[in-house]
Design goal:
binds zinc ion, 8 helices, single chain, 15 strands, alpha/beta, 8-stranded mixed β-sheet, 7-stranded mixed β-sheet, Metallo-beta-lactamase, Chain A
């Protein structure tokens, strides 16, 4: 089965520290390849609490889109789990350079647990098992950050991770399934995240088969993201849903 499982859907720091939404990141299973994206706080716990349970030892790779705490807190324990407690050198890790250098979030101790650590770069293309992915453009965010385009046999999925909107952003993400990190309801000066108006622009331009909104900050939680998703579906002619903790999307339906 090809699926995306949302282990956590929190974005802003108060949603995270109060655990109004969970923060474990996203699990993607595509063409028999298991990939964990952005293992934030509680990722390991959420994998085991998941129904059906997700076994971290079955992971083929972990991708860190950027080093911020809500994306990286559980990276070391998830590397430990992917590599069977460090007893088998196993799995791939992908991360921007600043997650590995000076004040690294990926501790040196765990780096030789895995087969390979690859540095993410603008216009990078990478392979994991049966699938490939690319990081088409560097985002505008407080740390070095990339979005992801995955290509499987029958599916393409884009993750527009944390970024401030910039001209042409939508032209980099043409996946049939589009996942958008929408932290804010309205644009806020000096906050480098997408808001609802940005989402509308991206969805209208790209018309994916399905769009999933996630990574909600407090203003989004208050605005009821499922109502925003319903409004988008009505007005934009694209099916849009708001992610909830533990929600699973069956990619074979699209
Ligand atoms: Zn974030
Ligand atoms: Zn961030």
């Amino acid at each position: 089965m090809n699926k995306i499982k949302f282990l956590g859907t929190s974005g802003g720091r108060f949603v995270l520290i109060n655990q109004l939404r969970k923060s474990g990141g996203t699990w993607l299973t595509l063409d028999d390849t298991n990939i964990l994206i952005d293992p934030g706080p509680g990722c390991l716990v959420s994998c085991h609490a998941s129904k059906p349970k997700l076994n971290p030892q079955s992971l083929d790779a972990i991708i860190l889109t950027h080093r911020h705490l809500d994306h990286s807190n559980d990276i070391n324990v998830m590397i430990e789990a992917m590599a069977n407690g460090g007893f088998n050198k196993k799995g791939l890790v992908f991360a921007p350079r600043d997650a590995l250098e000076d004040d690294p979030v990926i501790l040196k101790h765990f780096r030789d647990h895995v087969e390979k650590i690859e540095i993410l770069k603008e216009k990078g293309t990478y392979k994991i098992g049966n699938i490939s992915f690319e990081t088409p453009v560097k985002h505008v965010h407080g740390a070095e950050t990339y979005g992801l385009n995955f290509f499987g046999k029958n599916h393409s999925i884009s993750f527009v991770t944390d970024t401030k909107y910039f001209d042409g952003l939508e032209s980099f993400y043409h996946g049939e399934i589009l996942v958008l990190n929408i932290v804010m309801f309205k644009e806020m000066e000096h906050v480098m995240h997408l808001c609802v108006d940005d989402a509308e622009k991206i969805i209208s331009a790209n018309k994916p088969k399905l769009c999933v909104l996630t990574h909600f900050g407090m203003t989004m939680i208050k605005a009821k993201p499922w109502e925003i998703a319903e409004r988008f579906t009505r007005n934009l002619g694209v099916k849009v849903v708001a992610a909830s903790d533990g929600m699973s999307i069956d990619l074979d339906k699209y």
